[in-house]
Design brief:
single chain, 205 residues, four-stranded mixed beta sheet, globular
Amino acid sequence: MHPTIKESLDRSMSYETYSNLVNTLAETNGTTGIEQTEALINYTKLNARRMKRWDKTLKVTEEAKAMISEFNQSVTWLVITESWCGDAAHVIPVLNKLAQLNANIDLKLVLRDENVALMDMFLTNGGRAIAKLIMIDNETGEVLDTFGPRPSEATALVNNYKAEHGKLTPEFKEDLQVWYNKNKGQSIIEDIVKMLCKFQPAACI
């Protein structure tokens, strides 16, 4: 296992610990990360509500449940995040629900600004985009695959908008949140099932 990955794993936390951290920060006008701006604090408050909502309302199809529960490789999903990140607030509760379906999947979370060396190993188009999932084989320590910062459908929306307009506007970011709410986590689930199926095709026929 790469030493940077091992160091970050040693510092990692469970979903429950992360969720409690986000809730505590939301209640005390704080945020994770180096910057402590009013905007990021407000995003943390919003994300605490988003995570609670997904914890209660996310539905996983029986087909997806069956495929995930049959995955028999022991892996860790190490996810890089921050409490202010809107994408992370939608993605991570879904990852938690999926990991709970299979004892072979261990979900761990680390904060980006405290794990910059790790983040810089898994950049997206040269940027430190989160949430980023790193799937690690627990036996070999090898990185098997990655997912993020967004599900593929949302990534396509972002890339198309950037190509047309040059950058993401506040209006587009609001539209993206609406997309997440309408999609109800299903694009994330589909992407994760596809990722697992690469390593265990027999379970996905």
